[in-house]
Every structure is written in C-alpha cells, then in structure tokens.
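During data preparation, we tokenized the protein backbone, and the record follows.
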Amino acid sequence: MNWLTNFVLPKIRAVVARKEVPDNLWKKCPGCEQMLFHRELTANLEVCRNCGHHFRIGSAIRFKQLFDDGAFERAELPRVPVDPLRFRDRKRYTDRLKEGQAMLGPGSDAAAVASGKIGGNAAVIAAFDFDFMGGSMGVAVGEGFLTAARLAVARRAGLIVIPSSGGARMQEGILSLMQMPRTILAADLVKEAGLPYIVVLTDPTTGGVSASFAMVGDIALAEPGAVIGFAGARVIEETIREKLPEGFQRAEYLYDHGMVDIVAPRAELPAMIGRILSLLQDPVRVMPALPPPPGRNGAEAR
C-alpha cells in the first residue's frame, strides 16, 4: 500500500488535477465580451480583433508604437513639490503617488515626454498614463507639458500630445487648475514658432484637460470610441433633464459635429501623423509635382 499511496496515487492526481490558469493570460473585451488571449491582444496593439474596441494603453506603449522603429529618448521632467496642500481623503496623497510610481517607476507621474522621429520627421510626444491616478493633471503634468513644448521648439520638432485623463487633480486644488492656462501658453509657444501641434484624443479625455490644451490642436485626431467631453453624460442629463443622443461624447459623434478632424484606428496613427508632420513642415517634399500649365490652344506648354 505504501508504494501505491506514495508513488502511484500522486502520479494519477498530477494527471487528472485541474491546472490553475493565470488571470493575466486572458482579458475580457468590454465591447463584445469576447475573451482575448493576451499575446494576440498585444500583437494587435491592444485592440480587440472582433469588435475593434481600443483598450487604454500607457505612454511606454505609445512611444514604441509611434516613433520610427520604436526608437526614442525620454525627457527628464522637472521635480515638483510633493503634496503641497497636505491633502488627505480616504488615504494620504503621498500614498497615492507612491502607488502610481510603484507601477510606472520612481519619480513618474500621469504624463511622460519623449522625442524621436515619426515618418522621418522630428517629433516630441507628451503622452498620458491613465493608470496613474486616472491621468489627472497636477503641477507635475503642467511642468511636463511645458518641458515638451520647449523641447519641441528647441529641436524644431512637431509636438504630439496624447491625453487620457479624468481632468484636474483634486488633491492639488487650485494649483491643478492653474495648469490649464499654463498648458495653453505652452501650446501657443509651439504655434508661435511655426511648428505643428497635433492632439490625439484617446479614451477618456475629460474635465480640465478637455477644457484646455486637448482641444486647441492644429489637427485633432481621435481613436475610435474614445469618450471626449467635459462633464460626464449622466451629470449632463441630470442637469438639463433631457435624454442625450446616442453615442454622445464619443469620438465619432464629435467628428460628425466638426470637433474632431479624423477618427483613426490605432494601427494607422504612425503613418498618418508622419504624413501630417511632413505636410505641415515640408510640403514641397511631400506634394507631387504639378503638371505644366496648358498652352493657348489647350496643348501643354513646351
């Protein structure tokens, strides 16, 4: 019995035992509720292969996707005061910052800046990380945005901003609201230098972010299905006491009403942004040569 108990029985249990599947191997699509294998989802740029739902992604993935050959240089952002108001709600503000930095790295915040080339054109990208306190905009984000604008001017590069934010950061109070005019001034700095300022609106772009730099781009792109607005749809319905139209505040709705120039799938963004940068910075190189003007008799001039 010892041989059966100690040797045979464990072998049988190992064969018939139900193996645990790690939770991170599959992800459920909120659009079509299909289970997606994480490797296929990663290979498809975090876009559902069934319904086209665009999952939220962070700045690191954005940089690798948009810059040529995934090559870029991260910009070092200025240090800012930590917890200037000594704010505390259910937990200390400093603890919330530590939680976000544990995921993204020491000293990180809701926005990151990198420079490189897109379609052969010099570019600077300021991208948001929604996982860091909902991508909320505080003093660190304002400083990062200003750094991106100054870097773009210094390198004669186009500035591409990719917001994904719930708005201003309440833990910094009036200081977070002050970042709205600061980001507008930073955007004007790029425009006054004659450089392209492109915004790629992603899910979600709301609150003080949508009320400032997110809606003043020379070109406004958006990912499909992205929520773009100031207040939430439920708050608006309760305020005006009316039912909102279907798809209200979605990228496609804003496109139909002239608030967005192009709604483009994630896979098409690198080529599209590269071509826009080329057209705005070096149109002679991009545009095809025009045919010679016709002569008086309708024939081509010789």
